[in-house]
Amino acid sequence: MGSPDYSTFLDLATRYERVALDTTMVFTPFFDQLVPFPLEERPRLRDLGQAGKILLGTDFPNIPYEYADQLQGLVRLDLGDAWLRAVCWHNLWSTLGLTGSHAL
């Protein structure tokens, strides 16, 4: 997501077709204490996620919090179930060119 330059990285993902961002570390209580995601950028986060440009990212097991915290942080964004499915599953499959029964 480009922390702490969230807006700049969202600009890049918007401008360039082959640029996508991942959610590693952001939206967790651990990271929100350091550099929280700006609330005014949530509409762009929603739109880019639905456009296939935001991917679930994690450095598990090399992260300073529980893996579930990453997923709970995404849920707390309250961007909807379709957004969560896109970010946590469909966007990666699409990026890798995978289709069919694997892309539930």
UniProtKB/TrEMBL annotation:
Pfam family, one: Amidohydro_2
Coiled-coil segments on the chain, per record: none
SUPFAM superfamilies, per database record: Metallo-dependent hydrolases (SSF51556)
Residue intervals of the Amidohydrolase-related domain: 2-91
InterPro entries the UniProt entry points to: Amidohydro-rel, Metal_Hydrolase
Gene Ontology MF terms: hydrolase activity
Name of the protein in question: Amidohydrolase-related domain-containing protein
Organism: Phytohabitans rumicis
